Amino acid sequence: xxxxxxxxxxxxxxxxxxKAAFRFGIDLPGIGRLPVNPMAMAGFLILGFANPxxxxxxxxxxxxxxxxxxxxPRFQRRVDAERRSQVKAAGEADRDQxxxxxxxxxxxxxxxxxxxxxxxxxxxxxxxxxxxxxxSSQDALSRLSWTYLKLLVASNHLxxxxxxxxGAGLQRQIAQLEQSLASPAVAGALRDSQSxxxxxxxxxxxxxxxxxxxxxxxxSDLARxxxxxxxxxxxxNLRGSGxxxxxxxxxxxxxxxxxxxxxxxxxxxxxxxxxxxxxxxxRN
Length: 284
Prior knowledge:
Helices cover 76% and strands 2% of the residues. By secondary structure, it is mainly alpha-helical. A two-stranded antiparallel ribbon has the order 1-2. Helix 1 crosses helix 3 and helix 6 runs antiparallel to helix 8 (188-239). The chain is elongated and about 110 Å long.
């Protein structure tokens, strides 16, 4: 990425941190969230009408407070986590829609995986895992679940694209045309037409072979994610709070990199990718 692009991104994030710092508040039992910083600014504003020196004092304190808080790594991680949470919450309806469009067996598989992911987090909470472990594990499990769903969507699209074609059926048609073209009685326009049809069928056969291979790779990737979540659950049960889930995964299939892999769901998947592939939280 060019340096100018990095600067724009960095400036945009800093503006987010400054806005969050300005809205800073604390939660009080029975009262709710108390906007401490805006209330302090309002106080200095009112006092300034009696003595303008309070305006200068308030401006200086506010500038120092905003700079100190907005550049604090822990505060930045909190803002990033809240932003990711908001984006994900906004996309849950779209994600649910993707799940509903799956065939019944695929929906059942997605539901089973999500249930195991929830169980992992439950075990970690019951074991007294710290916030970092919980948030890191939740982020990793969300990514695994999202990758799993994308693979299921892509698999459904591949299945539909075959449109009932089978390798055996295409091979029979190819064999019939080859036999016909071997006859000297077939000549002229008929030979040209059959030759063109034969070429198309051979291309379809190649496409079907690639589709079948990709489906096998997708099936392997799905099984791998299931195994990784199973391992995470076993580790959580065995190690308790010391188990941290990771989402490091090299897929056998390159289908998720294909812009046409999801059919009419492509735009929805691209929008949701921003949320589920956001950078994970890191420890001080």
